[in-house]
Amino acid sequence: MDDPKNKSDKSPEELMSQVSEPDGDLDPSKKVSAVDAMADESNQDKPAAAVPAKAKGIKGLISRVNIYLLLFILVVIISVAVYLVLYFMNKREADVRLETTKIAEETLEQLKTADATIGDPQQILTIESHAVISGKVIMRDTVDIAGALTIGGPLSIPSIGVAGAGRFNSLTTNDLQAAGNVAIGGLLDVAGGAAIGENLTVAGDINGGGRLDIGGQATIGGNLNVNGIISAQGINFESISISRINITGTNPSVAVGGAAGGGGTASINGTDTAATVTINTGGGTSTGILATIFFTGAFSSNNPHPVLTPNGSGCANIGWYVTNISATQFAIATATAPPAGATCRFNYIVIN
C-alpha cells in the first residue's frame, strides 16, 4: 500500500502540465523534476496549530482576580461613599446659622407703649445688655435657664419641678412633694401638705400648719412648731420639752374584782394611755383584785409600765398595787381589805 504521506494533493492533469512545461533555468543542477517536487512537497512539515495569545491589560487582570474579592471591594467603596455623604450633610447642618436682626432704639420705645410681636418661632431674640422689666412677664411656653436664677422678691408659682439641686433661703408652699431627700438650710413653712419619700434635714425651724408626711428620717436642727396634730407610729427623741400633753382615744373596758365585795362595781373614763378608774365597794371586802383594765389595743411590748396613784381619800390608806401586767391588760389589787361602801378612785398612766 502506498504511504499516505507521499500522496500529493494535485490532480493528474496538474502533474502532467508540470512535466510538459519547459524549465527556463539552463542550469541542470537547479532543475527539479515534477516527481521530486511532489515528493518535496509531501515531505515538508505542516505548520503547528497557532497557540492563542494570553490576554493582556485589564481583561487579563480581571481573569486572574477572585470574584469574591471584587464583591468585597465593591462593598468597601459603597460604605465609603455613604459615610462621605452623611459627613457632608451633618457638616452643612452644623454650619446653618440663624439670621440676626438688630432692634433699633425707636423699636424699643414702641415696645414700651404698645403690644407687638417680634419675629417668629424660628428666630431667636438675643439681648446682650441688661434688661429691666417694670411690668409683668408672661411665658406661654417652657423657660430654659442655662445659668443661675436669682430672685430678690417673692416667687409665686402653681408648681415647681427641680431636677437638680435647688437652694432656698425661705420656702413657703401649700403642697410639697419630694421623691428623694430634702435638705433645707433655712426655714420650712408648710401651710398645706408635705410628702417626702425619704429623709428630711432642716437646719432651721419647721412651722407646720398642715400635714407633714416623712417616709424616712427627719433631722431638725431648730425648733418644730406644729399648729395641728402630729401622727406617727413611732417618734424618737433624745430630749423633749412639752408644755402640755393631750391624749385622745377610745375608752377601755374594766371588770370589778372579788376584793370589792358583794355588790361592788367598777367604771373607767379615759384611754389606754391615761384614765381614771372608779371602784364602789360593797359588803364583805377582802384582799386581792379590785378591778382589771382591758386595753382597746395591744401594746407593742408584753410589759407596758402602768403608773397608779389614788385619787381622793376613799382608798388612800389601803395597800394598793398593780399586778397581772401584759400587752392587753393590767389589774389594780390591794394587800389590805378596803372599807365597805367606799368609793375608791385611781388615776393611771401607761408608758410602753
Quickly count the helices: 5
Give the averaged pLDDT, no decimals. 76
Q: Alpha-carbon distance between the termini?
A: 144 Å
Low-confidence stretches: 24-29
Strand content is 15-25%
What does this protein structure show overall?
The structure is a single chain. The protein is α/β, with parallel strands linked by helices. Among the domains are: 66-94; 169-244; 253-351, Sandwich (Immunoglobulin-like), CATH 2.60.40. Helices cover 18% and strands 25% of the residues. It is built from five helices and 16 strands. Strands 1, 3, 5, 6 and 8 form a five-stranded parallel sheet that branches. A four-stranded antiparallel sheet has the order 9-12-15-14, with no helix packed on it. Strands 10-11-16-13 form a four-stranded antiparallel sheet, with no helix packed on it. It is elongated. The N and C termini lie far apart (144 Å).
Q: Could you provide a short overview of the structure?
A:
The chain has five helices and 16 strands. The chain is an alpha/beta fold and 352 residues long. Strand 10 and strand 11 form a beta hairpin.
Topology of this protein?
Layout: H1 12-20, H2 34-43, H3 58-64, H4 67-94, H5 105-113, E1 170-178, E2 182-184, E3 187-196, E4 200-202, E5 206-208, E6 211-214, E7 218-220, E8 224-226, E9 253-256, E10 265-270, E11 274-280, E12 288-294, E13 305-310, E14 320-323, E15 329-334, E16 343-351
Parallel strand pairs: 1-3, 2-4, 3-5, 3-6, 4-7, 5-8
Antiparallel strand pairs: 9-12, 10-11, 11-16, 12-15, 13-16, 14-15
